[in-house]
Amino acid sequence: MILAIVEHDRGKLNPISLECLTLARELARDSGDALEAILIGEVARSMVQVVGRYGVSRVHLATHDRLNDYAPEAWARTVLQLVARIQPEAVTVAGSDRGNELLAHLAALSRQPMAANCIEVLSGDAYRVTRQRWGGSLLEEALLKGDPKLFSVAPHTLEAQETAAATEPVTETFTPELDDKAFRVRIKERVERSADKVSLSEARVVVGGGRGVGSAEGFARLEELAALLDGAVGGSRVVTNLGWRPHSDQIGQTGTRIAPELYIACGISGAIQHMVGCKGAKNILAINMDRDAPIMSKATYAVYGDLHEVLSALIDELRRRKL
Ligand SMILES: Cc1cc2nc3c(=O)[nH]c(=O)nc-3n(C[C@H](O)[C@H](O)[C@H](O)COP(=O)(O)OP(=O)(O)OC[C@H]3O[C@@H](n4cnc5c(N)ncnc54)[C@H](O)[C@@H]3O)c2cc1C
Question: Percent of the chain, pLDDT > 70?
């Protein structure tokens, strides 16, 4: 049996978990295994039916008064206790920051190897995996052994698909034994972004700014354009390092991975570490004063010019059409 860990934040499902379930279901079908899932925290109970639509036949719901919020070691110890009892062939999770962190804890606790960010997994005594390395700029083929085999699924590399043969999953509840030490790492405080803002990772349009924007104030034009397109504003690492934008706005290898319909990249050169973060974008519109900037050859549309002038023209035209 294959066990999928379903990632959520206080009961809000991370949609990339559905991509992970889709890959795990295909793998289970090929190896003749069942697909089961663990939901951690009573708050996750509402997700039972959703995961059923993705082919999960049995849900293990871990309830504990301290498990409703994310705590990586406590979550990993919870999975470990379930694994000891049900002995799955493999354990998988979405390759998000949290998913990989959780799996790393599980790997260390169970002394098993793990493969992070897989895009393809073929069954066998050892799994043959293809996985992203170096932020996705390199694909590695590897054989994954282990008892159980541990792997995460790279985000935005396959489409989440419901199964035609969905049934209501059987739900089994259990309470793990967790001492205080398991909660050494936990969330103590949250700073919420204002509710009227579209989140960067889920936005259909992202307007990104780089060093070329010139200043924190320069982002006002990008905010204006994003508001007209119901989008979100992000930036390169240079702009977060310079303090023009908060780190939560950073797009890239060490920031947020975005997957919008359209990414408008203004004054961004297109360094590999940045491009890793916007690989999931369906279209890229690059605005740059340098024709040879790497992003210009990677973009769907490239506009050569001063971003301040181009943005003003774009905003004026959008306003005119909205009148
Ligand atoms: C381990 C590691 C992790 C990293 N992680 C990330 C990451 O997560 N995200 C990330 O973004 N970077 C990351 N970086 C940094 C990355 O290598 C680049 O340094 C960074 O992305 C460059 O940012 P930029 O494009 O804003 O700046 P620059 O490379 O300086 O590019 C500025 C661009 O603006 C253009 N420009 C200037 N003025 C204008 C104008 N008026 N109009 C139009 N165009 C103009 C220029 O032609 C140039 O192309 C990482 C680096 C390392 C080593």
Answer: 99
